[in-house]
Amino acid sequence: TGGAGGTEVTVNTYAGLRAACRQAGPIIIYVDGSLVPNESYCYIEGYDKTIIGVGTNSGLAGYGFRVSGTNIIIANLTFSATNSHADGITVDDSSHGIGRNVWVDHCTFYDCRDGSVDVTKGADYVTVSWCKFYYAPVPTGVVQHQFVNLIASSDSDNPNGVYHVTFHHNWY
Fold it and tell me: Among candidates 133, 68, 143, which has minimal Cα distance to 102?
C-alpha cells in the first residue's frame, strides 16, 4: 500500500526529497526531475511511503536510495551512478531501521556500478518488477565494477537464513 491515504508532496530538489523520505507517517512523494544527492545514500525511513517519478526523466543521479523502512513503494524512477561506486537501491537492516515489504517497480538502473538493487542484512519481502538494468559498453580489456543484484552479502547475513525476494518481468 505504500503511502496510500497519506500526505502528497512533489519534490524537485534533493533536500526536499531527503526531508520527505524521513517524514513520519504515510506519504506519497512525487519526484520531478533528475536529482543529484550530496551524500552517499538517501535514506528512506519509517513506514508507509510511495516514491514515484513524474514523467520519464525523474530519478537520482550519482547515488541512490537506502531503504530502511517498511511498506515502501519505489516506482518510475531512473537511477544512475556513472561517476561513483554506489548502489541504485540498497534494501537492508541499518541503524535507521529494517527494509521490509518493499516494491521496486518500473525503474531504470543505468551504470549503478556497485549494485543496481541489493537486498542484504536481513531485509525481507522485496519485489523488483518491470525494471530495466543496463551498463554502458566497456572497451575490450577494460575491467569495470559492474554488479547488477546482490541478495545477501555473506552466509551469516540474515539471522533467519531466508530471504523472500522476487524479480519478475525485468530486462537485463
Answer: 68
Give 132's Cβ-side CA count (13 Å radius).
Answer: 10
Q: State pLDDT tens for residues 106-156.
A: 999 998 877 899 998 888 899 999 999 998 888 888 877 777 888 887 767
Cβ(55)–Cβ(30) under 8 Å? no
20's enclosing H/E stretch is: helix 14-21
Residues 6+ positions from 27 with CB-CB distance below 8 Å: 3, 6, 7, 8, 9, 20, 48, 49, 50
**Torsion over CA: 12, 16, 21, 24 (sign):** negative
Terminus-to-terminus CA distance in the chain, angstroms?
27
Residue 133, CB-side half-sphere exposure with 13 Å CA sphere: 25
Question: What cell numbers appear for 2 in the block?
Answer: 505504500
